[in-house]
């Protein structure tokens, strides 16, 4: 079995690659990644020498390259995670999100369809997507697989568009597909532009913690290893053409999550209780900031028997420990261009 995993040098992709390479020694795993600012081969140091792992540097936006790649390797399946993934960056540069998330996905779909039609390889195109395509909830309710799409940010609009293309290739050309829409992930190797690793990094360095608006937005958090386990199940047992929502029934108001992180970090850094909380600064809200995301994950639970393996309290502690133990990784990714980006982000109120 030859599987192409796109975006495997990124945060979630590296956990998926690791799981597949270790769990399925008989599979050949091809990791296609452009190595943007978010792609980092250090995320895969522990498996890079394995004989069933292959790295290919390349850009999914390059149509000829993608066609050649599929025709050369005749993959049995694709797990597509490569994307521009950060909402704040999508507000700064929407076109880059259209290029990678929409055009890049359509390039992969074309190549997968072509080899599927020619010789029935690429038996599954698995598209990894987000709960943000469903828009924003009020205080009540959960996103189900049949919730209407209502994206608000350039990022979620580009992911919604790519989801629609994937379904269109199934309905129009008969390409076997499956899609999953997951809630916010956290864990090791997440780039410190996202809330949890950014705040761990800032607390460690006694830097301000920029809370958007009043910190009242709600997100539904899932430990990344559990997302990778769900992707493994959906890839092998998901119904063709189906959608699965993935989430941990684990909603947190941002400010409550931040206070919890501050308490854990005070203990880990042997600081007086309350030290980290003093770093909190309420800053200008994100434009179009969705109020609340919450996933109904009962379908994947009932059909495929998936549920999270760790509680949030366990996951956040594992995550904080990882960042505190892997200072070299954090120092490497927060040098250079990171500083320039970070300075453009936070406007004090
Ligand atoms: P990430 O930003 O950490 O990684 C993205 C990877 O894609 C990087 O390695 C990058 O180099 C690569 N990439 C970007 N553009 C590329 C291109 N043109 N060609 C080839 N490779 C390219 O993202 P992530 O947080 O790991 O998210 C992975 C996927 O999961 C995305 O599709 C995202 O929409 C989805 N998702 C993320 C979350 C989350 O909480 N992070 C939740 C649900 C779904
Ligand atoms: O500095 C910050 N301050 C702050 O208050 C940052 C970076 C974020 N926030 C808020 C915004 C959100 O309400 O925290 C919440 C989480 O923000 P992010 O970590 O940027 O995640 P989010 O925008 O919710 O999107 C994430 O989850 C869904 C991923 O980035 C997406 O790729 C995924 O699809």
TrEMBL record:
Its cofactor is NAD(+). One of its GO terms (molecular function) is dTDP-glucose 4,6-dehydratase activity. This is dTDP-glucose 4,6-dehydratase. PANTHER family: DTDP-D-GLUCOSE 4,6-DEHYDRATASE-RELATED. Residues 4-317 form the NAD(P)-binding domain. It comes from the Bacteria. Belongs to the NAD(P)-dependent epimerase/dehydratase family. dTDP-glucose dehydratase subfamily. The keyword Lyase applies. Keywords: Lyase, NAD.
């Amino acid at each position: 079995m030859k599987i192409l995993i796109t975006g495997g040098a990124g945060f979630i992709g590296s956990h998926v690659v690791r799981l597949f390479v270790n769990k399925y020694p008989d599979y050949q795993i091809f990791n296609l990644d452009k190595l943007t600012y978010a792609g980092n081969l250090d995320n895969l140091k522990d498996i890079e020498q394995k004989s069933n792992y292959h790295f290919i540097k390349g850009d999914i936006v390059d149509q000829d390259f993608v066609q050649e790649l599929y025709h050369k390797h005749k993959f049995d399946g694709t797990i597509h995670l490569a994307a521009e993934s950060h909402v704040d960056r999508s507000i700064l540069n929407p076109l880059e999100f259209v290029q990678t998330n929409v055009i890049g996905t359509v390039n992969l779909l074309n190549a997968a369809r072509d080899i599927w039609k020619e010789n029935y390889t690429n038996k599954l195109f698995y598209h990894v997507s987000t709960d943000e395509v469903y828009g924003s909830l009020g205080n009540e309710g959960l996103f189900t697989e049949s919730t209407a799409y209502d994206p608000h940010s350039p990022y979620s609009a580009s992911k919604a568009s790519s989801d629609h293309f994937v379904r269109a290739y199934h309905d129009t050309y008969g390409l076997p597909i499956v899609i999953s829409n997951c809630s916010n992930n956290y864990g090791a190797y997440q780039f410190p532009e996202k809330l949890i690793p950014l705040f761990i990094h800032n607390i460690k360095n006694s830097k301000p913690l920029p809370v958007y608006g009043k910190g009242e937005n709600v997100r539904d958090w899932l430990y990344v290893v559990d997302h990778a386990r769900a992707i493994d199940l959906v890839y092998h047992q998901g119904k063709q053409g189906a959608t699965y929502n993935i989430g941990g029934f684990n909603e947190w108001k941002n400010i409550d999550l931040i206070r919890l992180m501050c308490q854990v970090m005070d203990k880990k850094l042997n600081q007086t209780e309350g030290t980290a909380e003093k770093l909190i600064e309420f800053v200008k809200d994100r434009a179009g900031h969705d109020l609340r995301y919450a996933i109904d994950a009962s379908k994947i639970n009932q059909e495929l028997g998936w549920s999270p393996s760790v509680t949030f309290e366990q996951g956040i502690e594992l995550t904080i420990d990882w960042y505190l133990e892997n200072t070299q990784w954090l120092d490497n990714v927060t040098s250079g261009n990171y500083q320039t980006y970070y300075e453009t982000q936070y406007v004090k109120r």
